[in-house]
Amino acid sequence: MTNPVLVEVLRGAIVESAHRGAIAVFDADGKSVWEIGDTARPVFPRSAVKAIQALPLVESGAADAYGFGNRELALACASHSGQPEHVELARSMLAKAGLDETALECGAHWPSHDATIALARAGEVPNALHNNCSGKHSGFLCTCVHVGVAHKGYVNAGHAEQEMIRDAMQAVTGAAHGADERATDGCSIPTYAVPLRSFALGFARMVTTTGFGPERAKAAKRLLSACMAEPFFVAGTGRADVALMQAAPGRIFVKGGAEGVYCAALPELGLGIALKCDDGAGRAAEAMVAAVIAKLLHADETLAAKLIKLANAPIESRIGAKVGALRPTAALN
Amino acid sequence: MTNPVLVEVLRGAIVESAHRGAIAVFDADGKSVWEIGDTARPVFPRSAVKAIQALPLVESGAADAYGFGNRELALACASHSGQPEHVELARSMLAKAGLDETALECGAHWPSHDATIALARAGEVPNALHNNCSGKHSGFLCTCVHVGVAHKGYVNAGHAEQEMIRDAMQAVTGAAHGADERATDGCSIPTYAVPLRSFALGFARMVTTTGFGPERAKAAKRLLSACMAEPFFVAGTGRADVALMQAAPGRIFVKGGAEGVYCAALPELGLGIALKCDDGAGRAAEAMVAAVIAKLLHADETLAAKLIKLANAPIESRIGAKVGALRPTAALN
């Protein structure tokens, strides 16, 4: 099955590039509300499921034991830009469990463009705290310390931490996460390829807590609420996830992942959304998620305008002139 | 027409993302040697045709008047990484025509990752000389000064410089470059969408000089030879264009462009190649051009191994572990 073109990239009046993809929208009872493209093909969700991966942090009692509020929980669900606020918060989360960045096994990388320039100007180099996943990994480490398992090797499949996460992922999405579906994410933890529709169902469950026990229900609510309350700590300055969640505070949860994945949830509709751009382009995935939310949400004129703007990002020349734009196709109407 | 998947991105053993595209290989007589996908669809060549756009610099006598050698001519055809060597050479080209960076109308942007860090550490910010197109623009400005036209507005359609370039593009590719095909490139000059097969034919002509007058023939030879002799000045440290041209010195000319375009020429076969990845991904275009060259060139084992390695770039985690790879599909065999 060939997925349809969902986003075109215009230069002047001509289509320069095009992005295909698949999108699943489900309710928490497993009803398909809207699907386009092949939503049964296994997809690695990458960072788009960090909120589910953070369930053990809350359910284990670690988040309460260390006094984590919305910012810490948002950072545990984040792919952050490595700005000083992110780095310091990850450091403080680790400190509460008696750890420092040497415990992180995610590796280091230079952060977002602006943060990289600031770091280089200060004569510094990035460490693992600057890794966009350091909040998630700090959450993993805090969970290990709190429940009393040795944290070394916590990124490996088979470690108690990854088994807790796998159990949560399987329970929430309803999809088997076996060795055959497994590969390694950029931050060294396992990532499992399962159908998009399972992630859509999973986020519908996360946002409605349908079928969850009381502990899981409370944890899911806290995590999604924390992300919607503190979107800067989920991403960073200028990022699409922040703009989308700030466009309608408390009404939109979104989380992007590498290789063009998005998961989202709309509390007032009780819907979960999962999508992937076939070619892995983040620019197209951002346009797709904004367009789908604009389609589904009962938006007033102001909100609709904000979402449409995010779905039609301009292409600019190096002098800042608008020379083109992204454009969702009719398939997304 | 839906173009075929030409490159897959594997994570572990699972295909995570996929890139479609079209490729045209032509000889200088206009014979199609190999085509895949829709090679008649108009495509913006972006920076992949800089060697053709540099013809007026040589043909006008400007390159000789200012004493430009291989490095300057390579930089005039370059999308460089903004490393100090590139910046200084562009500055010296402008100085020979009595100009400095204030004459450049390409705009400024932060250069490649490593060059950005070096610049920020030095407490500096980029100027137009760091723009990846500054060598091309310096060539444009030198041409203006040498032939005696006012350089202000040299980036605009209708300016004498852009008309010289348009004439060269039309003559070499055989395709009309009209207002309907025109949009604006990232560096503010016009870019025209014409069929891939026209670019393939154009580069077959550039490398064989078939049908060219003696001045154009000499200019084409000098420009392609300069790029193959000084590939670092066409791109920069670690770039695919450099690796490809260094893999078989004098036997491979390649030039990438934004949004997943490549033009290439193989002197010993007299062939021109043009390709575009549908979605604009540079990683896939690099794999495609390496795979096509491996297919066409009569390569010994060492060269074949180099090309296959470039066509199958690894995907690494943040700790440098190989967790996946790009893989050309059977369509490229």
Automatic annotation (TrEMBL), chains A, B:
User: Is Hydrolase one of the keywords UniProt gives this record?
Assistant: yes
Q: What's the Enzyme Commission number for this chain?
A: 3.5.1.1
Superkingdom: Bacteria
In its keyword annotation, does this UniProt entry include Hydrolase?
A: yes
Q: Which UniProt keywords apply?
A: Hydrolase
Q: Which InterPro entries match?
A: Asparaginase_II
Instruction: Tell me the GO molecular function terms.
Output: asparaginase activity
| Name of the molecule in the record | Asparaginase
